[in-house]
UniProtKB/TrEMBL annotation:
Record InterPro entries: Diverse_Catalytic_Enzymes (IPR051094), HD/PDEase_dom (IPR003607), HD_domain (IPR006674), YqeK (IPR005249)
Catalytic activity: P(1),P(4)-bis(5'-adenosyl) tetraphosphate + H2O = 2 ADP + 2 H(+)
Gene Ontology molecular function: bis(5'-nucleosyl)-tetraphosphatase (symmetrical) activity
Signal peptide feature range: none
Keywords, alphabetical: Hydrolase, Iron, Metal-binding, Nucleotide-binding
UniProt lineage: Bacteria, Bacillati, Bacillota, Bacilli, Bacillales
Highest taxon in the source lineage: Bacteria
E.C. designation(s): 3.6.1.41
Short name of one Pfam family: HD
Name of the protein described by the UniProt record: bis(5'-nucleosyl)-tetraphosphatase (symmetrical)
Provenance organism: Alicyclobacillus fastidiosus
Domain annotation HD/PDEase: ranges: 14-140
Top enzyme class: hydrolase
Amino acid sequence: MELSQLIHDVKDSLTPHRFHHVEGVVQASIDLAKQYGVNAEQAEIAAWLHDIAREWSWEKLRVASQTIEVPPGFATIPTLLHGPIGAHIGKTHYGIDDELILDAVRYHTTGRPDMTALDMVLFVADAIEPGRDYAGVDQIRQAARRSLEWAVRLSIDNTIRFLVDAGKPLFPLTVLTRNDLIMRSE
Ligand SMILES: Nc1ncnc2c1ncn2[C@@H]1O[C@H](COP(=O)(O)OP(=O)(O)O)[C@@H](O)[C@H]1O
């Protein structure tokens, strides 16, 4: 695959602000990968790809989701489709056939039970890249120095609180992810 072409297209697909976020996620992913013994090349590719469809309209996401395989339920909350659709674009446009990379992209917003180390690297990098500024982010940054699992869990707790307070729907897979992390830590 041509990484420079992917980066070029990601830049074209996003506002400068979100492209800057993606650059932050790439650096944070590489750093976390090195820290936790994860393949940094896979982490970098997943990070460049993860938000490629983030600025698609709901209608465009919905239409695309009808022609490709999307994990169950994702279409009920259209924003979440940018993960599975990003993975699909990675496979079809850039020839990325590494399922570890594609899964990390697919589930980067929702998480999933039995997350791989690469899934967790991207999930946490997305939450803590230097451009992120929200209540609780420093606690997640600190957690990421000690444990990927713990950082994912804190980030999920934060997202759940945010969604509940905002009166927004919560995707059940994220609850299953949280339960799985708690069971694994006991
Ligand atoms: N687990 C979830 N269940 C339902 N909606 C979610 C979940 N996680 C995120 N969202 C929604 O999807 C939107 C995009 O999430 P995300 O891609 O993490 O945000 P960002 O654009 O800041 O990277 C959030 O603003 C939120 O409304």
